[in-house]
Each structure stands twice: as C-alpha cells, then as structure tokens.
Amino acid sequence: MFRRMSSNTCWLCKIFRAEENGISSKLSLEEVLQWSQSFEKLVTSKYGPMIYKAYLKTEHSNENIEFWLACEAYKKITSQRKRISVAKKLFTSYIQPQAPNKINIDSPARKAIIRNIQEPTQSCFDEAQKIIYMHMERDSYPRFLESKFYQKLKHSLQTNGNNSVVN
C-alpha cells in the first residue's frame, strides 16, 4: 500500500511497521478521526503523539512535542533526586540559550525556569509547556489535519473497511 511514496512521506512507512514502532494492528479509523476533533484528543490518544511527532519532524519542529511529552513524564516524577536530574536534562536540551533542541518560549518563562532550576518543583516547566502546547495547537496542528500524511492515513483506514493499517 505504501511502497511508492516520496521521501516526504517515508515517515508514514516507518510508522506502519508494527515491530519497529510498537504500533499494534489496532490503530483504528475511530481513533484517527478523533484527532481532528481537538488537539487534546490527538496528544492524549494512544498513537496520536507518535504520529504527530513524525509529522512534526517533516516540519523540523519535533522538539515541541518532544518537550511537551517530556514535561508530562517529568510531572509524574516523585523522587526529588530524579526530578533534579531530569529537570537539568530538560533545561540543557530545550531551554538554555544554546540548547540543541531549543524551544520557542518567551523571555519571562525562560527566566523563571533559570531561577528555579537549582531546586526544581513538579510545576517548574508548566508555563513553558503551556506556551509550547499553544504553539502546536495554533500552528502545526491545523497543518497536520490538512496534510497529505493525515489525509492518507484516514483514507487508508477508510478503504480498509475500518480495519487496521497494519495487518
């Protein structure tokens, strides 16, 4: 089904290799259609974040979803020692001025994180996470819904009679 796709859509081929990416044969048309209802439904669904991340790679903005997902995991950390370690990794990867995956947040949010990084709280990245969520929801999410990738995914599930893409 996906043999002759351009290099721009090769990510789609990779997604549908169940063994490599952990997508079972249960990716349903119902789930994929729910993604168009709201950005929240996309990022909180089982496979949505991974497929959205793959799409963002084509836009060279996958650092946004990676940061957002990392913040979700960070908030669940209960050990202060582990929280400090992960907070520093988030800071060096996404927040500091020369970060390799620097995210686009405003100066007050960045300065607040810098002030709190020595003794990070469970919520010290919340403001930055909200900003990134809004960027994705307003900018890349509408493009994702209109993209060939999402449209082809929907179409492939519809033509398979609501069966999975992966058999």
Structure description:
The protein is mostly helical and 167 residues long. It contains ten helices and no strands. Helix 5 runs antiparallel to helix 6 (62-74) and helix 6 runs antiparallel to helix 7. The protein is elongated. The termini are close together. 26% of the residues are buried.
- Rg, rounded, reads 18 Å
Q: Give the low-confidence spans.
A: 1-11, 18-22
Tally of alpha and pi helices: 10
- What's the rounded overall pLDDT mean? 85
Quantity of strands, as a count: 0
H/E series, N to C? HHHHHHHHHH
> Overall 3D geometry?
elongated
Strand content: under 5%
What distance lies between the first and last C-alpha atoms, to the nearest angstrom? Answer: 11 Å
Helix/strand/pairing class, anyone? mainly alpha
Helix content: 55-70%
Which sheet architecture does the biggest sheet show? none
